[in-house]
Amino acid sequence: MRLILSLVILLSLPANPLTAESIAETDNTDVSSADWPWWRGPNRNGIASPDQHPPLEWDESRNVLWKAKLTGRGHGSATVVGDRIFLATADNDAKKQAVVCLEKQTGRQLWETVIHEGGFPDAKDKRSGGNEKASLASSTVACDGTFVFINFLNNKAIFTTALTLDGKQMWQTKITNYVVHQGYGSSPAIYEGLVIVSGDNKGGGAIAGLDRATGKIVWKRERPSKPNYASPTIVKINGHDQLLFTGCDLVTSLDPLTGEQLWEFEGATTECVTTTITDGHRIFTSGGYPKNHISAVAADGSGTVVWENNIRTYVPSMLSKDGLLYAVMDAGIATCLNSETGKEVWKGRLAGTFSSSPILVGERIYVTNEEGTTFVIAAGSDGFRKLATNQLGESVFATPTICGGRIYTRVAKMEQGMRQEYLYCLGEK
Predict the structure, then answer these.
(1) Closest Cα to residue 76, out of 154, 160, 140?
(2) N or C: which end of the chain has fewer CB within 10 A?
(3) Minimal CA–CA distance to 217: which of 169, 174, 183?
(4) Angstrom distance (rounded) from CA 267 to CA 376
(5) DSSP sequence for 2-23
């Protein structure tokens, strides 16, 4: 692999530039371990708190605590902070993109704030691109306990918007123009006083750190003119926080507070969807275009590829724990690999096609296919063991949220010939 050196590009700084020190001093994140405050959960890795007991089995009548009817369509997960749940949604008929807030205990809608009205891609214009599996609300809301942050593709650009917990819009910032290829689904990441957002696309995208309180761009880096769909994520390696980002044929590490490049090398495919994870020694990437791959690259920035295979795990993100790497292929095969060597520990066939990512809770992995079937399989090295199979609804693209012993799953079903979405709250009765 060829190590690529590049200069830090700092763009769009405010007239009185904010400093890393001043941003760090504004960190007032108020979320708990019982919350699910952003994409992939509190630790950004799809691993839920092990000291909880979500249900193993359910259906339309068993272990359903409540269900809430949702307007429009969205593929973002439920964000749970305190006594509230936040979801992004898009109504294609009304041409509105919104954030909805529900009461956690009952599912009652507390408010809905329209973020954009109009500005939707023209479905009749083939140049607008898009994928039939995409939605215009595929990002997952991030919440720091004070504000709610969401990314939307609208009017051929990516915008990040901040709301109060009561749904009042505080600010909105344009991140980059956007040329649609397959769609857009990158979720915001919160780090200290920043919200970090991205918008890779064929027209030339960007990744940026915004002041959470004002929306001002603190740092911004240009990206290659290539389509890509990954979300930025922050991991700790050797005691230091790194902002990891894959896609556009690169694996990139930035200082999350300043945007300064730590290292970058060729080690991923062009189009990536999954969110990068690490075991502290290796960084695991996957992609599906132009080639299928899972790879482990050294976390020291040397560009060393430790191992690589041709497994197609394009959309569902992976899990890493206790020396094992778990992946669910798009085509419905679950596999467990030795994270140090890449050797197969076990694999087993599920059923259907997967866009949702797996969630690990203790010794159980929960994963849902596009037809609404959730499989619960055993974690560990003792072979493939399917613990339960549960059916709910007819269509699922969103990853379930699991916290406080409950599962929040976004499900669609056909009612009177129309697609209708619900958020289900599942728990032991």
Answers:
(1) 140
(2) C
(3) 174
(4) 32
(5) -B--------S--SS---HHHH
32-71 pLDDT, tens per residue? 888 999 999 999 999 999 999 999 999 999 999 999 999 9
Residue-wise DSSP of 68-113:
EEESSB--PPPEEETTEEEEEEEETTTTEEEEEEEETTT--EEEEE
Q: State which residues form the domain around 364.
A: 42-75+355-429
Burial code of 57-68, b = ≥16 C-beta within 10 A, e = fewer? ebeeeebbbbbb
Q: For the chain, what is the domain count?
A: 1
β-pairing verdict for 47-48 and 359-361: parallel
| Residue 366, in any domain of the structure | yes
Q: What's the CA gap between 69 and 72, in Å, rounded?
A: 10
Q: Is residue 10 pLDDT above 50, yes or no?
A: no
- As a dihedral over the C-alpha atoms of residue 213, residue 218, residue 223, residue 229, rounded to 10 degrees, the angle is -20
User: What does pLDDT average to over the chain?
Assistant: 91
Structural domain contains residue 85: no
Residue 340 in domain: no
Q: For residues 78 and 160, what is the distance between their CA atoms, to the nearest angstrom? A: 18
Greatest pairwise CA separation for the chain in angstroms:
59
State the CB neighbour count (10 A cutoff) for residue 196. 27
d(CA 270, CA 349): 28
- Is residue 99 in a domain? no
The length of the chain, given as a count of residues: 429
Task: Give yes or no for a contact between 131 and 184, defined as CB atoms under 8 angstroms apart.
Answer: no
Please name which of 271, 120, 257 lies closest in space to residue 181, comparing C-alpha atoms: 271
pLDDT tens sequence across 179-203:
998 899 999 999 999 999 999 999 9
